[in-house]
């Protein structure tokens, strides 16, 4: 449970504009879709995917780091890591089982004989969208465990797009359709309170000193 007194204490430090901005952004946040990236060798691409998640309202990004184990490039993420939740996994199996237990269907973004074009994708089901490496695409393990396949329609000679570009196109399309639907896609009241608390903490300099003062007084 969220300590509402503590939340009020922290938000009292923030400007009214900042608090209003939080509420406006949270009104457009969703966990109906979540994004997963697998062993992305060029870390700036993972950071760029994170920025797309933040800009278009996806609250969670799942990062599988079996081989490269690099950290998020904070410069390229442009502060997005403060506002998007990053779930890190050291194996495909753990990531997939976790997301399935949360009620997501696993969607591999790759050309496949049973693929679905972006505009035809059914947005009603909570979905985890998986993106693979620049060099090899998604692993066979993910392709075998996927519940469905999604691709971007292309009409040129080039057969693929950079992962960060693909993710941006797909995330923008699906979240826009979601917001124009009657699907219950928004965060719950409890999730909104959790994010207000987390974002307030991320916005306050010297938060440890501020917290210590609060607990001394309470």
TrEMBL record:
<dbReference type="GO" id="GO:0141100">
    <property type="term" value="F:tRNA (guanine(18)-2'-O)-methyltransferase activity"/>
</dbReference>
<keyword id="KW-0949">S-adenosyl-L-methionine</keyword>
<feature type="binding site">
    <location>
        <position position="109"/>
    </location>
    <ligand>
        <name>S-adenosyl-L-methionine</name>
    </ligand>
</feature>
<protein>
    <recommendedName>
        <fullName>tRNA (guanosine(18)-2'-O)-methyltransferase</fullName>
        <ecNumber>2.1.1.34</ecNumber>
    </recommendedName>
</protein>
<feature type="binding site">
    <location>
        <position position="161"/>
    </location>
    <ligand>
        <name>S-adenosyl-L-methionine</name>
    </ligand>
</feature>
<keyword id="KW-0489">Methyltransferase</keyword>
<feature type="binding site">
    <location>
        <position position="152"/>
    </location>
    <ligand>
        <name>S-adenosyl-L-methionine</name>
    </ligand>
</feature>
<keyword id="KW-0820">tRNA-binding</keyword>
<keyword id="KW-0819">tRNA processing</keyword>
<keyword id="KW-0808">Transferase</keyword>
<dbReference type="InterPro" id="IPR029028">
    <property type="entry name" value="Alpha/beta_knot_MTases"/>
</dbReference>
<dbReference type="GO" id="GO:0002938">
    <property type="term" value="P:tRNA guanine ribose methylation"/>
</dbReference>
<keyword id="KW-0694">RNA-binding</keyword>
<comment type="similarity">
    <text>Belongs to the class IV-like SAM-binding methyltransferase superfamily. RNA methyltransferase TrmH family.</text>
</comment>
<feature type="domain" description="tRNA/rRNA methyltransferase SpoU type">
    <location>
        <begin position="33"/>
        <end position="171"/>
    </location>
</feature>
<dbReference type="Pfam" id="PF00588">
    <property type="entry name" value="SpoU_methylase"/>
</dbReference>
<dbReference type="InterPro" id="IPR033671">
    <property type="entry name" value="TrmH"/>
</dbReference>
<comment type="function">
    <text>Catalyzes the 2'-O methylation of guanosine at position 18 in tRNA.</text>
</comment>
<dbReference type="InterPro" id="IPR001537">
    <property type="entry name" value="SpoU_MeTrfase"/>
</dbReference>
<dbReference type="InterPro" id="IPR029026">
    <property type="entry name" value="tRNA_m1G_MTases_N"/>
</dbReference>
<dbReference type="GO" id="GO:0000049">
    <property type="term" value="F:tRNA binding"/>
</dbReference>
